[in-house]
Amino acid sequence: MNSHQDYILQVRGLTKTFAGVVALDNVQLNIRKGEVHALMGENGAGKSTLMKLLIGLLKPDSGEISFEGTDLTTSHVREVMKRGISMIHQEMQVVPELTVAQNIFLGREANGKLFSWLNDRNLTERAGQLLKQMGVNIRPDSQMKYLSVAQMQMVEIAKAISNNARVIIMDEPTSALSDKEVATLFGLISDLKQKGVAIIYISHKMEEIFTIADTITVLRDGKYMATKPAAEFDIHTLITMMVGREIDTLFPVSTTRPGKEVLSVRQLCRKGKFSDISFDVYEGEILGIAGLMGAGRTEVASAIYGLDPADSGELYIKGEKVSINAPQDAIGHGIGYVSEDRKKFGFIPHLSVRENITLASLPKYAKGGVVQAKSESETANVMMADLKIKASSSAQPVKQLSGGNQQKVVIGKILLSSPSIIILDEPTRGIDIGAKAEIYKLINQLKETGTAIILISSELPELLGMSDRILVLAKGHQTAVLSAREATQETIMHYAMEV
Amino acid sequence: MEKDSTLIKGGDYGGIRIRDAGKYVLLIVLVAICIALAMTTPRFFTVQNLMIIVTQVSINALLAFGVTFVIITGGIDLSIGSIVAVTGVVAASFAHPDTYPVIVPIGVGLLAGLLFGAFNGFVVTRTKVPPFIVTLGTMTIGRGLALILSKGRPVSNLSDSFNFIGGGKVLGVPTLIIILVVFFVVCTVILKKTVIGRYMYAVGGNEQAAKASGIQLSTVKMIVYTLCGGLAALAGILLTSRITTGQPNAGAGFELDAIAAAIIGGTSTAGGAGTMTGTLLGALLIGVISNGLDLLNVTSYYQQVVMGIIIIGAVVLDSLKHTKNG
Amino acid sequence: MEKDSTLIKGGDYGGIRIRDAGKYVLLIVLVAICIALAMTTPRFFTVQNLMIIVTQVSINALLAFGVTFVIITGGIDLSIGSIVAVTGVVAASFAHPDTYPVIVPIGVGLLAGLLFGAFNGFVVTRTKVPPFIVTLGTMTIGRGLALILSKGRPVSNLSDSFNFIGGGKVLGVPTLIIILVVFFVVCTVILKKTVIGRYMYAVGGNEQAAKASGIQLSTVKMIVYTLCGGLAALAGILLTSRITTGQPNAGAGFELDAIAAAIIGGTSTAGGAGTMTGTLLGALLIGVISNGLDLLNVTSYYQQVVMGIIIIGAVVLDSLKHTKNG
Amino acid sequence: SQSSTSEKGQNSESKKLVVGVSMLSMQNEFIVNVHDAMVKKAEADGVELITVDAERSALKQVEQIESFIAQKVDAIIMNPCEVEASSPAVTKALAAKIPIINVNSETSTKPTAFVGSDDVESARIAMKYIAEKLGGKGNVVMMHGYMGQAAQIKREQGAREILKQYPNLKLIAHQTGEWDRAKAMSLMENWIQSYGGQINAVFAQNDEMGLGAVKALTDAGLKDKVIVVSIDAIPDGLQAVKKGTLDATVFQNAEQQGSKAIETAVKAAKGQAYDKETLIPFQLVTKENLAKFLK
Ligand SMILES: Nc1ncnc2c1ncn2[C@@H]1O[C@H](COP(=O)(O)OP(=O)(O)OP(=O)(O)O)[C@@H](O)[C@H]1O
Ligand SMILES: Nc1ncnc2c1ncn2[C@@H]1O[C@H](COP(=O)(O)OP(=O)(O)OP(=O)(O)O)[C@@H](O)[C@H]1O
Ligand SMILES: [Mg+2]
Ligand SMILES: [Mg+2]
To answer: What are the beta bridge partners of residue A143?
Structure first.
């Protein structure tokens, strides 16, 4: 097809095992200059592992990596980055105590010479320019820990592109972004392409792939499947190759009609975050919440759940006024919450899949304070099977799972606590298309059993496909509540941009 | 569908858990050291000597059990040595012959320890002061209290029944060994089999996520520090009984030994991981080395050097296994 | 546009940095305690007494500076007390009158401390043994070494020029104060103004992120432990000079005081946060309380109780501020 | 500093003498006893005491003396932590023209006056007793205090002097028990394992350790066969001698050391004549002469 000289980065016969689990098995990858090369595969297919091998964070068992003719197989990250590869990590790699600018240039201050002076003013200035060029409105001097997940993601992007790399790996860069920022990123990507920079792009959002990818490589269960120009794929063939079976309908049809009012939110306020939020959710209903990054959706959700209680306003559950000051209050009132930040609020890394899944409902599987191992284990196994969680066993620590599978564990935990109200904040973040269909099916099942559901998502198709009504937030204010009929991408965007 | 189900290979009971695999290496190291000692000196491998080792280890092990709970939740307790002193002095004050029945000094001593621990827990949960500082503070306070209560003098002349608790034998087995075994089982059960035990791992593994799962952080921490105080009190009472006197300066430095036992045994200083078996092995390792060095009559200066090297070496060996796991 | 920017609080450009705000509260607490003492006893607020306090604080502060580096990277160093002893003994052995010029004991002592620290760093970076265990091990080893080198006896009869380093005065100001100020500035500059200082924060704040940014974790840690060893050596030499003898049992327990100073000063036990100013204030707080209690003639048993309460109290006050910031 | 002088002038109108006292460790019973005697004597003499605890740290002690000097006390009593390391304190006090009295143990720099006994002598007495009891022949083990501390060094020195005189008295093991009863008990248990019946006598450098050894030997049923001797004559030790479990201890007169120290300090402060050296002899305590030590 092409001569070897075209390839800027070549991977041959790469194999990597973790404690006996084969994550990658004899994988190849060839990247051309100036192309956007999508790497596709289910959760746990080995995409992130492959990328970590490329950047030098992991060492392969066998195989080789060559970049612009030099062998990088056993090189340290520092060397790899110096040579011109940079990476946006799936799990964000930020230092919370440092500022945005300090994070962006981390490892490259004064060329990384250990014993030279820092010039923070200069770093801040450069970071400010960079962010401005990118069209991102984040102060370079604010501490990283005060940023939202989406903002951190933008900083990570800034960090990767500021390296003047010739290959940029983007491992699910948009999982926390809403459409506006995705558009910004795509603009950046096309500029980079112009400059001959190659992008390795990983995402579970199919539309994105068909928008920007030039070439697609598919992995399945750690094995290389195929590499073809994007034009030769359509969504069905791609999914079939990834999953090994067909997925017909993504969004299931629901026939349930909303029942009685379950949760009422009245005039919920928190200074500087959101104000005057009022809405109701009914039994068997999915209320979508739409908004741009920083609109305050997550803040509203965590206020309802008591993670970060509101300053004022009222909550009613089944008509009764309740006060929720901590998550255990919310859980007591039958509310479940899947956070957008799974690493921070979602799971306990050292604990096993089983222990994480049962964590929020443990007393149910205990007698006199003693956990009944058998019933706990059985329940966890059923949930693992239902959600198709890929793990070596239910005893595998969650920290060893792929990102998407971690997300499934978090969802499984909340499902198991059988809440009557469930708040899902970006629930399919980083989840592959097959599993997404499963999760939508589960959400629908919950709905059918009368659970009231609040679905926060930055993916408009998901919101439109699932919701009965959609609440739109803009800069902390509620701008509309749209019925399924009224809601379209355009109307939602219209209200989301409203001031 | 059948492809999917192979991904889930059964439950985990019955098998060796990944998290626990570490302790087997430590066990091997411990056994290896024992064999080496048995080959060097015939006096090592006798029932009597092994019993003495376990007896000597028991007080450190009880303290280490308590501190294991605390470290698993991501905390630390430096005050346990002082709790030993306070509870020892308190118990001894009620243990003079012909005053109270032996249950009184035990009860009062335990109560003092539980209260002390609860106070640690209270300050840790009600304020944002790091546990290191809270318990360093109460360590100093506790030492002062022990000295004030005893006026700086040992409290001696204790009843025989009190002295039996930590110094007696039942069917030829020292009471200390029996108590150690009982509390090892109790602590293991709490940690591994109960809801609160699971919550300890959760809180130490990811405090935010534990909170979001509806776990009341302050309750878990209160329980953990109180438990640790209670075990330290038990250690204090047993020590007092064993040496037949309540010493205001007893237990100084015990916290470091106990924390060392827990960490050698695989308890993660960052919280979220650890087992009682590991901690027991850690305590036994320290005890065996110390006994062995005495038996071999190694000069005291060199004892310290050898002790330090062996402890680091044991943990190095133990950690090699983890390296393979990536 | 302008609306968004208001959402992100906590800018630090030119203003007070959130991370550093803590030390102001601590400063206020410290000043308040000083005023209270000055009002209670006329002997407190004299130039001479204040100079004595700073002199007394200096050795702990130097150790605390070193351990602040280590804790910021997420580590811990328990061996500093033993390094004080080893380097003190080593330096003293070369400091007898009419043998070597005074630079030799200083150089050899510092070298010993740097090597000791480098050894800590080596074990921490080459193995997966937690720093707590590594440095607990080397603490024991170091103590043994100090005893072996000195044969268990103080090394005395030191030259006047050597004794001047830590015991003399320059223009009426004790050398210890001058050295303290110099090293406070040096350590602050290293931490705040150099690349390696930035890397310390990064490694402690998020080791994975630091690694992913191409920072060589092992290099940073090696430097940090070596630096800590060097500062401990300096403290050891100054101590030896001040008490005019190299004591094999010097420095026992110093590690806890130094760590306490760092943590009171706002260094996070989890790593990633801390300042030298905070540490200095922490050390001064301990020093002022200790001096004040002596001046007020508080009985030694009660001193410990009061000391513990004030330290916890000071950090409680300090932490209230953080609560407000959410 | 001028203003502080005038303040002091006002203070001294009461004419009450102020004596600064720095004690080795207030966690040590014997030291507490010395201090109690000082307090009693000071009350009787109308002297104000400022007591501080050096917690076994020579550095801390030096600092405390500096502080006393800054406070311009009339006299200082120091119970030195170390022979050498506490010496700068003496130098500084003398330079500030404040009389400094060492109590209980010495420093290499000569103070204004010394009240106490020679630690080396106490160990000689103890070891001599063992030698005589064993007829100059047998196996001895020795328990040290904290290694490197003045008391440990001196007591070891005294013991070894006597051992040299008895070539058939063999020191088969020596190890630190860190002045602590529990540690000593464990150590003795381990020694019993390695030497079993070979040990004829134990010399512990303080009573706490001696009592720990006694407990271990009693538990092992060996007490009848092994002599245990220690130093300090603390109440527990005397009780043990009474019971016959501890064979002998060496009495150091805390009360006299304390009161004589105050007496000397007061005289020195007032510029009266005082004894440069007050040596208070040690006495061996055995069952025979026990009565006069029991209060
Ligand atoms: N440190 C580890 N120890 C054990 N297994 C691991 C470890 N890291 C990854 N794995 C396993 O390797 C496999 C591949 O994981 P990887 O993260 O590469 O998947 P992925 O394709 O990026 O998935 P996702 O789309 O969910 O991010 C998974 O089965 C995962 O459980
Ligand atoms: N601790 C904090 N300190 C300062 N600002 C914060 C803090 N937490 C969140 N914010 C800011 O509050 C705003 C609202 O955040 P929130 O996460 O609720 O937005 P959202 O609508 O859920 O959007 P997204 O999740 O897509 O970012 C964000 O701009 C965020 O930067
Ligand atoms: Mg991935
Ligand atoms: Mg959000």
So the answer is: A99
Report which residue type is found at A35.
E
* ipTM surpassing 0.85: yes
- pTM (2 decimals)? 0.90
Instruction: Show the DSSP H helices in B41-127 as ranges.
Output: 47-72, 80-93, 103-126
Whether residue B326 lies inside any domain: the answer is: no
Give the closest-approach CA distance of C18 to chain B in angstroms.
16
3-state DSSP assignment of residue C64: helix
B·C CB contacts under 8 A: 137
Is residue B201 within 8 Å of residue B272, measured between CB atoms? yes
Predicted pLDDT of residue B318? 79
pLDDT at B322: 54
Give the pLDDT confidence score for residue A442 in this predicted structure.
Answer: 86
Position D56 scores a pLDDT of 87
Taking a C-beta distance cutoff of 8 angstroms, is the pair B98, B73 a contact?
Answer: no
Centroid of ligand 1 to alpha carbon of A392 (angstroms)? 11
Contact C105, C94 (CB under 8 A): yes
The boundaries of the domain holding residue B272 are: 2-321
Confidence band of A499 (pLDDT split at 50, 70, 90): low
The answer to whether residue C12 scores a pLDDT higher than 70 is: no
> Residue A475 carries which side chain, given as an amino acid letter?
K
Whether the CB-CB separation of D287 and D125 falls below 8 Å is answered with: no
Q: Choose among C138, C301, C323: nearest Cβ to B144.
A: C301
Q: Which residue has the tokens 């044991």?
A: B314
CA distance C87 to chain D (A): 15
Burial of A484 (0-12, 13-18, 19+ CB in 10 A): middle
In a 10 Å sphere around its CB, with 0-12 CB exposed, 13-18 middle and 19+ buried, how is residue D9 labelled? exposed
Nearest atom in ligand 1 to the alpha carbon of residue A90 is 27
**H or E segment and range at residue A471:** strand A469-474
With a 6 Å cutoff on the Cβ, whether A43 touches ligand 1 is: yes
String of DSSP letters for B222-249: HHHHHHHHHHHHHHHHHHHHHHTSB-TT
What is the spatial distance between Cα A43 and Cα A405, in angstroms, rounded to a whole number?
A: 6
Please report whether residue B168 resides in a domain: yes
Q: Write down the mean pLDDT value for chain C.
A: 89
Q: What are phi and psi of A175, to 5 degrees?
A: -60, -25
Output phi, psi for C174, to 5 deg.
-55, 140
The proportion of chain A whose per-residue pLDDT surpasses 70, expressed as a percent, equals 98
Give the three-class secondary structure for C139: helix
Q: Are A50 and A219 in contact (CB under 8 A)?
A: yes
Asked whether the predicted pLDDT for residue C315 surpasses 80, the reply is yes
**CATH number of the domain that B35 lies in?**
1.10.3470
Number of separate domains in chain C:
1
Q: Is A296 in the pocket of ligand 2 (CB under 6 A)?
A: yes
Residue range A261-496, CATH number: 3.40.50.300
Contact A354 B325 (CB under 8 A): no
For residue B77, is it within any domain? yes
On whether residue C222 sits in a domain, the answer given is yes
- Among candidates D172, D194, D239 on the partner chain, residue whose Cβ is nearest the Cβ of B41: D194
Q: Of the bound ligands, which one is closest to the alpha carbon of residue A296?
A: 2
CA A339 to ligand 3 centroid distance, Å: 19
Mean pLDDT of chain A: 91
Give, as one character, the DSSP assignment of residue B152.
Answer: T
Structure tokens at D236: 């527990």
CA distance A342 to A346: 4
What is the CATH T-level fold of the domain A4-243, as seen in this structure? Rossmann fold (3.40.50)
Distance A314 CA to ligand 2 centre (A): 22
Residues B207 and B210: their CA atoms lie apart, in Å, by: 5
Q: Span A439-453, mean pLDDT?
A: 90
Residue that the structure tokens 């003190």 belong to: C88
Instruction: Please give the single-letter amino acid code of residue B98.
Output: D
Say whether A19 sits in a helix, a strand or coil. Answer: coil
